[in-house]
Amino acid sequence: MNERARILVVDDEPQLTRVLRTGLKSRGYDVRAAADGLSGFETFNDWHPDLVITDLAMPNVDGLELCRRLRAVSQVPIIVLSAKGEEKTKVEALDLGADDFVTKPFGIDELLARVRASLRRASASAINSPAQTTLDSGDFHVDLESREITVSGNSVHLTPKEFDLLVYFIKHSGKVLTHRTLLAAIWGGNYVEQNEYLRVFVGTLRKKIEPDSTSPRYILTEPWIGYRFDPGPAE
Amino acid sequence: MNERARILVVDDEPQLTRVLRTGLKSRGYDVRAAADGLSGFETFNDWHPDLVITDLAMPNVDGLELCRRLRAVSQVPIIVLSAKGEEKTKVEALDLGADDFVTKPFGIDELLARVRASLRRASASAINSPAQTTLDSGDFHVDLESREITVSGNSVHLTPKEFDLLVYFIKHSGKVLTHRTLLAAIWGGNYVEQNEYLRVFVGTLRKKIEPDSTSPRYILTEPWIGYRFDPGPAE
DNA sequence: CCGTCTTTACAAACTCTTTATGGAACCTTT
DNA sequence: AAAGGTTCCATAAAGAGTTTGTAAAGACGG
Fold it and tell me: Could you say which DSSP state residue B231 is in?
């Protein structure tokens, strides 16, 4: 936090690029822009930004391919911009390692919120790196050794799969997690199509951890895409 | 665990100190407070508490320096209180040997959970010290030399394997122990698949130490994972 | 021979999987 | 925009498959 965070915007629409550049700069970020995936990737290598915002539909190297190339060399947070209805492409991007998405048209405030969240997440995960036996995120406290979980101080008993799923959620708080990603992480690569498993387990988890499981506060649904975990009041 | 655990609170905010003192005392802890790092260190040397909770920002000797001085003379568990956004300091504190941290503002329940976890960890590792000839945990008293065990004052006759298993449970109270872990510890690495051994011995142990072996109070089952030992009343 | 450990067997308990149904979100057409 | 159709989501509950609890018989060693 000593220096201004650097953000790379990759988009082929000059108008949108200008809006983003202005909005981000006014919030104190250091911004550079590129008009296609190829020059975006080059700028990334030269400049090493702290976060990348990229459109999906672009000439030369498109957003998906850019995600792939970035992930091959970096864990930089990626926020994807996509038009409404491009769910399938969005899911592909997220599966390739994008952190979050914003659907066009969007308000600059919404984007700024996502940017803040992604940057905070990135710096937080850097802090928690030393081999930890305990996990903390918002209202949740997890002891990985004793496999005990407390939510706002109340301890909760979870079955093994429920425990694994919740730990995965907590470890990836705020990030949009696709069905495929979650299934691969908990059940293994052979089960990436079994969305029913997820539905059932998310259901039982919600009943155990949500104050009101009919309007979830922690495990949020991202329709057609997956789930997002919000750990509650940030530190 | 026979006596009340002693907790030293080091903080320069009288308001917060009062809340902590009240909350901790109501849970049966013996509490003393100090208003800065210097007097905190002195109190530690006089009183030898079982756990230290310290703020980071303080007059005289600050939290980091207090951690350093404590670690120079003791392995006492340290929980650090830090304000939101002091990530860098938190990391320093953990590097200096702090056990856990809690970010302000926090709920008293969360802090209590951390306190319990830290004390449990500490007592477990203290028990593992080589010179120990006697073990005390909740309702259990073990003489490792004569291999005698009493539960709530009643002496119990155990076979060698039963004795080893129960001692292992007591030494790792509260933690979930997988079948594999237990088998490796008692029978050796070549028997990690013999879950039947464990089933039988847990059964006989329960019949000998549980008041009602049909609803175990000490040796608890964690289905699909293993067992957890709860030594009974912690105070 | 006796106490202890190993092995076997089966019923009970638990988790995970699978299915079914009603409702919600989204897309298409008008 | 609004209606209809389609796909997806939430939930309950039945079913399958494991694991666990318990008793008891066989094996081992002092």
Answer: -
Instruction: For the beta carbon of residue A65, count every other beta carbon within 10 angstroms.
Output: 15
- CA-CA-CA-CA torsion for B72, B76, B79, B85, nearest 10 degrees? 10
Q: Name the 3-class secondary structure at B221.
A: strand
Report the alpha-carbon distance of residue B71 to residue B52 in Å, rounded. 11
Q: What pLDDT sits at residue A130?
A: 45
Query: Among candidates B87, B180, B233, which has minimal Cα distance to A122?
Result: B87
Please state the φ and ψ torsions of residue A54, each to the nearest 5 degrees.
-135, 140
SS3 B81: strand
Q: Locate A19 and state its tokens.
A: 């809006």
Inter-residue long-range contacts of B90-97, CB under 8 Å, 24+ positions, other chains counted: B90/A127, B90/B56, B91/A127, B92/B64, B93/B56, B93/B63, B93/B64, B93/B67, B94/A130, B96/B64, B96/B67, B96/B68, B96/B71, B97/B67, B97/B70, B97/B71
* Dist. CA B34–CA B5, nearest whole Å: 17
For A204-223, give the DSSP string. HHHHHH-SSTTS-SSEEEET
Structure confidence by residue, pLDDT tens digits, A156-176: 999 999 999 999 999 999 999
Helices (H) and strands (E) in chain A, counts: 8, 12
A132 reaches B (C-beta below 8 A): no
B172 touches chain A (CB under 8 A): no
**Residue A129: pLDDT band with limits 50, 70, 90:** very low
Residue B105 phi/psi, 5-degree rounding, is -80, 150
Nucleotides on strand C lying under 7 Å from protein C-beta = 3-9, 14-20, 25-28
pTM of the prediction? 0.78
Pick from B228, B9, B215: which is nearest to A155 by CA?
B228
C-alpha distances in Å from residue B78, one per residue of A195, B114, B147: 44, 10, 34
Chain B: residue whose CA lies nearest to A125: B87
